[in-house]
Design a protein that fits this description.
259 residues; globular; 14% helix; outer membrane lipoprotein receptor (LolB), chain A; mainly beta; 13-stranded antiparallel sheet; 5 helices; single chain
Length: 259
Amino acid sequence: MASRIVTVVTLAIALGAQAAPAAEGEQAPDVATILRKVEQARGGKARWDAVKTLRLEGTWTAFSVDVPMTIRRERPNLYRFDHRVLGTPAVLAYDGEQVWVQGEAYGAPEGQKLEDDWKRNVIDEVPFEPLLLERAAQGAKIELRGGERLEGRKVWVLAVTGAGMPDETWYVDAEKFLEQKRVSKTFDLFSGPGIEVEMETYYMDFREVSGLVLPFREERHFGVRYLVYEARSIEVDPQIDAAVFSMPVAQTAQPADPS
């Protein structure tokens, strides 16, 4: 994973992405230039390559309730999200090979492997580097659809296809080159199996942490759902026990003592 960002610009050029006409008469940059500037705005390749672990502490808002959350990531592709659902502890995680879930609200109090479509939601959270750059590194086709206004700011609109995920649309600030919005697909577990809906994700409150530039707030809107991930603190390269990414081993009931 550490070497992926280095390929972003060359991939965009190889894919033959073309610049679309700019809005308001402004000359539009090509896709390779936009991706290179996003990379620089987020801290640069060298700094990201040096990072091995990330831990985010904060608040997750779902079902109109604010609960504590912890998100841990470790290279190359380990991920764990601790939170609460309907008042009970819950975990969504990826151990490098399989997605697993734990929690009474998810019907898995002792932990179990996720096999249905919903596991794609978790896989979408796994990438270590900024997701737009990760999509490019995975070989997605990225095309510039032009410029427009988003909440009063000029943005470049990028269409992203391939990379093993549904098509996405990204909106990148034309001045700061930070991601502002992503339109994608997600599965809503609580609406029933296989229910796929469009989701809008907004990235806000970017801050510099140990040389990285990270959004401290994400808002996600899909269907009637409204989720907020708000960081209180983000640590770069904390010590993380790799065992936390592994699914718990189910406890086997002990036979009764015949005495």
